[in-house]
Design goal:
The complex is a heterodimer of chains A (316) and B (211). With 316 residues, chain A is an alpha+beta fold. In chain A, 30% of the residues lie in helices and 17% in strands. Chain A has 13 helices and eleven strands. In chain A, the strands form three sheets. Chain A has a five-stranded antiparallel β-sheet with strand order 4-5-8-6-7. The longest helix of chain A is centred in the last third of the chain and has 19 residues, at 296-314. Chain A is globular. Helix content of chain B is 34%, strand content 12%. Chain B has 211 residues and is α+β, with helices and mostly antiparallel strands. Classes of the chains: A alpha+beta (316), B alpha+beta (211).
């Protein structure tokens, strides 16, 4: 790791003030420290935000759920309200990482985790996300695990989160505070950015802006399902994952992981549910641009949806 | 044959140092921050409890909890495997929860209570999980074992607390099974593949807890 200085923020105001002079926030640290060891991330100052009392889960006056930014993945997955009202979120969280990592990883940190594209991780390789302008090693290289939709000629890295896929299907909002104290709420649909020509810019956050919570709208009811397909049955990133909510009134929602630079959701796919799994897959992947190595993911999305529809019919 | 005074630990340390020499910039990329490599740097002070003992350390802020335990407190029971949170050999309990000690900075644990394998039991007074690993031959080379045992102790606590896992069929109703244990232990890799015996050891302790 490159040398850095370290401070503990005592309040949100403290944290954003420290960040405005160039510091980086550290919460669980499970992704950031990994990347710092590889010198992919090289912050000169770390601001520890673990003591800001952002670790509560509470109902909103409207009937939704406000999840503090520092709530650990284990605590969120196990929370009684989440298990009962937002089961797709519990399921997605439990499908990710290991028990040790979920005990440390936070809600905000999970949203901000970086891609696991092997070219991003290997500092000897070109990567526009790690080193803008250096090129993309993956486009003509090993791309089996990478994105097939929402990509650009500059980057085909996939977003690795399971949690964010469930939050996308639930239409969560990301609540933040900026260095000047301004607060805003960003719909998760807009929070993550597609790579375009600037794959190193991954989300809407401005320098020094801090996530304080993630808010879920009122419970949807119905049947919640999360299906994850991966190379091992546990402790592996998704090749393809699907978060689905069948609301019981004929409405359906689908969000996809492992296939795009952000949690992937297409309105036309939600609308195609009555026509079956194949139609949903076709609508979700209408703009797909796979490589020869990851074209199999198109069929895998369709197969996973077929399996998920059967699961829903078996347990309505 | 190696002379008597050359221990396996010394050979391993020597080998590690030799591997670190060519082409890398010493402490800035080094995988380990020992008391020696800290000289002349900006230091941070941290105080926490390890296995019931209050300790205060002056550390380079880059020092992971794992390196603080092994290199500064000489608690070498906790192992460094991958140093990237992938293998679980460094698993310790912090405030009763299992975490990868390689992926957290020691300075982030001010006031925390840390339990390592040395704090679970001693050779003369083994923790039930340690005894069960011996009984069921839950290891071969033993390198991953301290992490496996710390993780296993926490897993039984998580099941007891009703925390669900990916293997849990009904999120509201957690039931102990081999499938649950395999899923929950997936963050601890065993290169010798002692997995079936590890599951047998954990099941024995779980059965004892119920009795």
């Amino acid at each position: 790791m490159k040398p850095f200085t370290y401070s503990r923020a005592a309040s949100v105001e403290d944290a954003v003030a420290a960040a405005s002079s160039g510091g980086r926030f550290i919460a669980g640290g499970t992704n950031l420290l990994d990347l710092m060891k590889l010198q992919i991330e090289t912050p000169s100052h770390l601001i520890d935000v673990n003591h800001l009392e952002l670790d509560r889960i509470e109902r909103t006056p409207e009937g939704g759920l406000r999840i503090g930014a520092m709530v650990r993945n284990t605590a969120l997955a196990a929370h009684p309200d989440v298990r009962r009202d937002y089961a797709v979120l519990s399921r997605a969280l439990l499908a990710g990482a290991s028990g040790q990592l979920r005990n440390k990883a936070t809600t905000a940190g999970n949203l901000l985790q970086r891609t696991r594209c092997p070219y991003f991780y290997d500092t000897r390789m070109p990567c526009n996300k790690r080193k803008p302008g250096s090129g993309c090693g993956a486009l003509k290289g090993g791309s089996r695990s990478l994105a097939i939709v929402g990509t650009s000629d500059a980057c085909i890295a996939q977003h690795p989160s399971d949690m964010a896929v469930a939050m996308r299907v639930l239409d969560a909002a990301v609540d933040t505070v900026a260095a000047d104290g301004t607060r805003r709420s960003i719909p998760i649909a807009d929070f993550h950015l597609l790579p375009g020509d600037t794959p190193h810019i991954e989300n809407q956050l401005k320098p020094g802006e801090l996530i304080t919570s993630v808010t879920l709208p009122n419970p949807l009811g119905g049947t919640h399902v999360y299906r994850k397909v991966r190379d091992r049955s546990s402790y592996a990133f998704a090749l393809v994952s699907v978060a689905a909510v069948f609301d019981g009134q004929g409405g359906s929602r689908f969000a996809f992981g492992g296939i795009a630079p952000k949690p992937w959701r297409v309105a036309a796919a939600d609308a195609a549910a009555a026509a079956g799994a194949g139609a949903v897959a076709q609508a979700a992947l209408a703009d797909a641009r796979p490589t020869a190595q990851n074209a199999f993911k198109q069929q895998l999305v369709a197969s996973t949806l077929t399996s998920l529809f059967r699961q829903k019919e078996a347990r309505p | 044959m190696a002379p008597d005074h050359v221990t396996r630990r010394a050979v391993l340390q020597g080998g590690g140092a030799a591997m670190a020499l060519p082409g890398v910039a010493g402490a800035e990329t080094g995988a380990m921050l020992s008391p020696e490599s800290n000289r002349g740097r900006d230091m941070s002070t941290v105080e926490f409890t390890v296995n019931g003992d209050r300790v205060q350390l002056q550390l380079d802020p880059r020092t992971t909890l794992l390196d603080a335990l092994r290199e500064h407190l000489q608690l070498t029971g906790t192992k460094k495997g991958c140093d990237h949170g992938q293998c679980g050999a460094c698993t310790v309990l912090v405030e009763g929860q299992r975490i990868n000690s390689c992926l957290t900075l020691a300075v982030m644990h001010e006031g925390d209570s840390v339990t390592t394998i040395e704090g679970l039991g001693t050779p003369k007074n083994l923790h039930p999980m340690q005894r069960a690993f011996v009984t069921h031959d839950g290891y071969q080379c033993g390198y991953c074992t301290p992490g496996q045992i710390c993780s296993a102790v926490a897993v039984l606590g998580e099941i007891e607390a009703g925390i669900p896992s990916h293997a849990t069929e009904d999120l509201e109703h957690v039931v102990l099974s081999d499938a649950e244990l395999r899923e929950r232990m997936s963050g601890n890799i065993c290169r010798c593949a002692a997995y079936p015996n590890i599951i047998a050891a954990i099941r024995e302790v779980a059965a004892g807890d119920e009795a």
